[in-house]
Amino acid sequence: MRRAGVPVAFSQGFTPHPKISYASAAPTGVASEAEYLEVGLREPVDPAALRAALDAALSPGLDVLDVVVASGGGLADRIEASHWRIELPEVDPAVLAAAVATFTAADEVMVERMTKQGRRTFDARGAVITIDVSGPPVTPSVAPAVPCAILELVVRQVTPSVRPDDVLSGLRVVAGLEPPVAPKVIRLAQGTLTAQGAIVDPLDADRDGATIGGR
Amino acid sequence: MSVPSTTPRPVAANSVWPQLESLLPQVTKPIQYVGGELGAVVKDWDAATVRWALMYPDAYEVGLPNQGVQILYEVLNELPDVLAERTYAVWPDLEKLMRAHGVPQFTVDAHRPVRDFDLFGVSFATELGYTNLLTAIDLAGVPLLAADRTDADPVIVAGGHAAFNPEPIADFVDAAVLGDGEEAVLEITAIVREWKAEGCPGGRDELLLRLARTESVYVPRFYDVDYLPDGRIQRVVPNRADVPFRVHKRTTMDLDAWPYPKKPLVPLAETVHERYAVEIFRGCTRGCRFCQAGMITRPVRERSITTVGQMVQQGLEFSGFHEVGLLSLSSADHSEIGDMCSGLAEQYQGTNVSLSLPSTRVDAFNIDLAQELSRNGRRTGLTFAPEGGSERIRKVINKMVSKDDLIRTVVTAYTNGWRQVKLYFMCGLPTETDEDVLEIAAMAHEVIKAGRAATGSKDIRCTVSIGGFVPKPHTPFQWASMERPEVIDHRLKLLKQAINADRSLGRAIGYRYHDGEPSLIEGLLSRGDRRVGAVIRRVWENGGRFDGWSEHFSYQRWVDAATEVLPAFGVDLDWYTTREREELEVLPWDHLDSGLDKDWLWQDWQDSLSEYEQDDCRWTPCFDCGVCPAMDTEIQIGPTGRKLLPLTPVNGLKLPAGAQQ
Question: Where does the record place the Radical SAM core domain (chain B) (predicted)?
Answer without folding.
Answer: 270-512
